[in-house]
Amino acid sequence: MTNTITEQLTPAGRQIEHDSFAIVDREAGAHTYSAAEWPIVRRMIHATADFEFNGLTRFHPQAVAAGVAAILAGRPLVADVEMILAGLSAPRLAHFGVALHQFIAAPEVIDQARSANTTRAVQAMRCAHRRGLLEDGIIAVGNAPTALLEVVRLIEVHALRPALVIGMPVGFVSAAESKATLAQLERVPWIVIDGRKGGSTLVVAAIHALLALAESQQSA
Q1: Domain Cobalamin biosynthesis precorrin-8X methylmutase CobH/CbiC, which positions (predicted)?
Q2: pTM of this structure
């Protein structure tokens, strides 16, 4: 059955996107991803024209199933930065009842970061945790390695159990290390990009791919 909610709105837009996916499939060649994982990697390549994500992207064994289930259940999505929220399709998320949250610019977060001499990203994740948004939710990190490290700390120290952690911070200080740390966890599903590459664009692409998979399952 053809998706309608998670497709481009016009026939011309849909054709361009489908043609682009076909080019990615052809040029990417062989890969080791499952049938559920490849649409996510393909959309990330489509968003960046970078075929290195065929190989750099890694999945916890339950990542895709857990992410789709969380979307179908309308669980909240918490991002580290507003850019992720700006890139996501509001109508697609609304179809599943998924609410978006980010606290990086909240006055209380700024004050706490200053008083504790930590980053806003750390305090933003603590704020989301206090509000009960991280438990069974989707956590999306595309910019701040300290946010991802704080999520790992909450998982290990406070027994936090998010539905899925999408860990794709970009950068040179702790970015690769934060993702490698997340990827060592077995009890929480995750999707990561190895190394320094990452960013909000990739997180958005991964979430849109999960939304499309959720719609396909909903319509089956």
Answers
A1: 15-212
A2: 0.94
